[in-house]
């Protein structure tokens, strides 16, 4: 769970974590985070100190009544760091803005390992099994009925993101955001995604005109089919 009111920061962190295979929710205020915490039951919280209503310190104070999930504070200033460290509020780590996403991810992985041990890896899912597909996230391989299917980097990433959340509808803009880095030199618009999806279907689907895996959601985007 990311608790952050600045959309650009929240989205950057969200995209980076989703690329790593994590399931991410963004809450814009501390009040929202607390209200939704029990339902979402996140394994880890990235918590901004400066929020529009109650601040991150107060959010953490209240969260600690219901969870021991690791909390990583995002702070903007040195005096906030002093408070995070000085009050020993039960934050597990902190980063001062601006930070590098790579640094954030390595801190998050370390916190998850410390909190959940071996489970930390299985929770992000090393292998996705969907219908007759096996998607090996570590080796970046896909097999259908045991037969290997060769996908490009972009195709693989599109597939694994959608397959990670069957039924969740992704807009073309969201999918483009997920894969943009890989083909940065190319002039890209949302139609690029249609082309990638069509290639994936050609390789994956027994009958590409009757897709079983990636559904088109008319006027919206695409979703991996639920069982
Ligand atoms: Ca903020």
Commentary on this structure:
- This protein is α/β, with parallel strands linked by helices and 227 residues long.
- It has 2 domains: 120 residues, Response regulator (Rossmann fold), CATH 3.40.50.2300; 98 residues, Arc Repressor Mutant, subunit A, CATH 1.10.10.
- Helix content is 43%, strand content 19%.
- It has 9 helices and 12 strands.
- Strands 2-1-3-4-5 form a 5-stranded parallel beta sheet, with helices on both faces. Strands 6-7-8-9 form a 4-stranded antiparallel beta sheet, covered by helices on one side. Strands 10-12-11 form a 3-stranded antiparallel beta sheet.
- Strand 7 and strand 8 form a beta hairpin.
- Helix 1 packs across helix 5, helix 2 runs parallel beside helix 3 and helix 7 packs across helix 9.
- It is elongated and about 60 Å long.
- The two termini are 27 Å apart.
- The mean pLDDT is 85.
- It binds calcium ion.
- The site of calcium ion (CA) has 6 residues, from loops.
